[in-house]
Amino acid sequence: MTDPLVSLPAFREAAAERLGAFAHTTVPDSPGSRRAGVVLCVVEHEGVPSVILIKRAYRGRNAGQWGLPGGRMDEGETPEEAALRELREELGLAVGPAEVLGRLDDFPAASGFSITPVVAAPSDPGPLRPSPDEVHSVHHVSLARLAADDTPRWVPQIDGGHLLQMRLRPDWVVHAPTGAMLWQFREVVLLGREARVADFLQPDWTRN
């Protein structure tokens, strides 16, 4: 069997099987809660399957932070519909519902949003057309880099907990919520392991 870390068709097959067997958790609605959908969008980049990561524009909510394409759900939308709509609005990529392979756990962000990550691997999403109003820069992280042993680092905290850092490059360090969703994607989809992330620590600056 071809390695799903280096072949997009093999990734699609493995991801669909693993996500199909994964019982994702959903954060229940509550007064004042807000919902969002994001996409772990896997495309071929420089010959290998890679996840699209963005740095948000230096304005508005989450200014300058690492993130996955996505955003707030509109009334009547499902998380998948919101995630794919935001992917199109932010990056110009056209991904259909049939190219969604599954979803991971809702993440209860400190900002008050419940974020639903969906996994998609489009065959022909079209060219990237980032919206300058929402996206400062676009980056690709290979699946092999995400799966590498030295990518996650757990930093001890004064209170005894540990803060996850996803070290994608020496100068690319991603924390929860985005880091938590990348870590669960790595564990469940790439490595085939059970993993939950709802209780992961989040830096104070992610509350904005």
From TrEMBL:
Pfam families: NUDIX
Nudix hydrolase domain ranges (all copies): 33-163
InterPro entries, per the entry: CoAse (IPR045121), Nudix_hydrolase (IPR020476), NUDIX_hydrolase-like_dom_sf (IPR015797), NUDIX_hydrolase_CS (IPR020084), NUDIX_hydrolase_dom (IPR000086)
CDD domains: NUDIX_CoAse_Nudt7 (cd03426)
Example GO molecular function: 8-oxo-7,8-dihydrodeoxyguanosine triphosphate pyrophosphatase activity
PANTHER family given in the database record: MITOCHONDRIAL COENZYME A DIPHOSPHATASE NUDT8 (PTHR12992:SF11), NUDIX HYDROLASE (PTHR12992)
UniProt record similarity statement: Belongs to the Nudix hydrolase family.
Protein name listed in UniProt: NUDIX hydrolase
Organism name: Actinomadura rugatobispora
